[in-house]
Amino acid sequence: MSTAGSDRFPYQLIATDLDGTLLRPDETVSARTRAALAAATAAGAAHIVVTGRAVPWTRPILDDLGYRGLAVCGQGAQVYHAGERRLLTSVTLDRQIAGLALAKIEAEVGPLLLAASRDGLDGEVLVGPGYRVHDGPLPYRPVSDPADLWSAPLNKVYIQHPRLSDDELAEAAQQAAGGLVGVTMAGQGIVEILPLGLTKATGLSLAARRLGLKAADTIAFGDMPNDIPMFAWAGCCVAMANAHADLKAVADEVTLSHEEDGIAVVLERLLG
Predict the structure, then answer these.
(1) Residue 4 above 60 pLDDT?
(2) Model-level pTM?
(3) Which end of the chain is more exposed for a tag (fewer CB within 10 A), N or C?
């Protein structure tokens, strides 16, 4: 990767989460943020989207941005080349271990509501009985038989509980099954079961290595606890004003919210 002009921008890699960070509530990227990212990349930086969304839910956003580079999807499970429309890496969840982990969690908190994200470029999100889905454009397929959730390779399982808050559920799941699987909270109503050790930092470090870049070269933006490992990896980390308190606690800086062009505010300042 050419570093021409990178002395005009202090970081060679800009890593941005999508929901609650780069995207506004209507799932668009503002003209101001687009312009700031374009100016930063013209000054020598690379932009990498790092999202909990698997590729099928990420691709429409990338296409709208005219994004041709690498994206880290599925909480780090997938490194996707947008220009070539192919997966460079893909990590799947061991379904037998996941089933054991869920049994341990349910033994502590009672029955869970489940959804699952299938592996692959066109992997569907399957939603089991009772699972509450956010209104919006993201496609999913309801299934009446919970066994259908486990019938093909998965990159993650989503869990909900009838009474526990997201924080309470994530904590209980970590306590009960943290030795078997990864547990993270990615948004409101979104607690996920992942392959053990997999985080956004896993995928971002792989993508950065492909670009010849390091953690110290990176500024990262995020809003939820699933961004904590990415913040721990990156040289500089910026939380949005709308971010979870746990993420703000480990951020170098808190910018304005995703509704107020918080990413653009920081990039414009760094561009001088």
Answers:
(1) no
(2) 0.93
(3) C
